Amino acid sequence: MVRKLLAVAAMALACAAQAQDYPSKPIRIIIPSTPGGGTDYIGRLMGSKLHELNGWAVVPENKPGAGTALGLAEAARAPAQGYDLVIGQSDNVTLIPLLMKVSYDPIKDLAPVALVATTPMVLLVAESSPYKSLPEVIEAARKDPNKISYGTSGTGGGVHIAMEMLQHSAGVKMQHVPYKGSAPALADLMGGHLQFAGSSISSAASLIKAGKVRALATTGLKRSPLTPDLPTVSETVPGYEATIWLGVMAPKGTPKEVVTYLNAAINKVINLPEVKEAWLKQGAIPLVKTPEEFDAYLRKDIDKWAEVVKVSGAKVQ
To answer: Are the beta carbons of 174 and 150 closer than 8 angstroms?
Structure first.
């Protein structure tokens, strides 16, 4: 028993020493998407500010592929020392493992470090559409099941599953038309080939501003500070909430002291006024959470969407 206690104490001292010396080499931030998108922007800005505030060498590395699952898989295999981080998000942490076989388990293989932002989606019709509000779309779908066709950026993505939840919650049935990205879906919406569409706010913002599409509602529980005059889905379908989140994760087993240290440094970045302003322009609402709060949020999110996937029968082909 004494030997066991001594071993535990020695391990604790080793972890404390590691945290005290951390970081002693460059930190890699894996960005599981192509350059130029919202996730890439947030990951690179965070890395730049961590360097600016702390003098750390931070190296962003894009690892797109497998529906953004490739980067998560690489992070899960990396040494658990705090030098390999990854930008996790709703799609690759919560949804993809529910919809297809992947080589990582988001709970068993990854450690939550900091939940940094959340963004609602927006529901749209063409500017020429006869539907002026979400209740009108729902009423039309209720009267004539599958009459309303809706486009998304792909099967199994956050927008698709959010639309599945909308149908289930509102008791209606619509026809899903998946695309390879949001741009072609929005193009077909404007061209009259679709009656309805869901999108991230950042992807649709310029089209809304130009009057080419009409925004009907956002999917957060509360109105977005970016669109305070736009109602939420929950104002029509009580309790409805479907948001995209982004967070920093590390390989499971990364010393708690290192995770706590990283969390404090990242939260300091998030609280910078220029970072808050930059992220809001991307449609992302900044968040400051502890690793424990992020873990609780993640587990609740997985349980919620597992039920939606089960009820809807959604699958990735």
So the answer is: yes
Class in CATH terms, 120-235: alpha beta
**Long-range contact set of residues 301-304: C-beta below 8 Å, sequence gap at least 24:** 301/90, 301/94, 301/245, 302/94, 302/98, 302/106, 302/107
How many CA atoms lie less than 13 Å away from 285 in the CB half-sphere? 18
Q: 3-class SS at 112?
A: strand
- Percentage of residues in the chain having pLDDT higher than 90: 67
Check whether 313 has a pLDDT greater than 80: no
Least Cα distance to 22 among 93, 105, 113, 106 occurs for: 113
**Six-digit token pair at 259?**
């995770």
CA neighbor of 118 nearest in space, from 183, 200, 60, 185:
200
What pLDDT digit, counting tens, does each position of 34-67 carry?
888 788 889 999 999 999 999 999 999 999 888 7
Sequence-distant (6+) residues with CB within 8 A of 88 are: 72, 106, 110, 246, 247, 248, 249
Q: What is the predicted pLDDT for the residue at 68?
A: 82
Does domain 2-17+25-119+243-312 bear CATH number 3.40.605.10? no
What residues does each domain of the chain span? 2-17+25-119+243-312, 120-235
Residue length of the chain: 317
Do 120-235 and 2-17+25-119+243-312 fall under one CATH topology?
yes
Q: b/e for 228-260, b at 16 or more Cβ within 10 A?
A: eebbbbbebbeebbbbbbbbbbbbbebbebbbe
Structure tokens given for 113: 């470090």
Residue 202's pLDDT band, with cuts at 50, 70 and 90, is confident
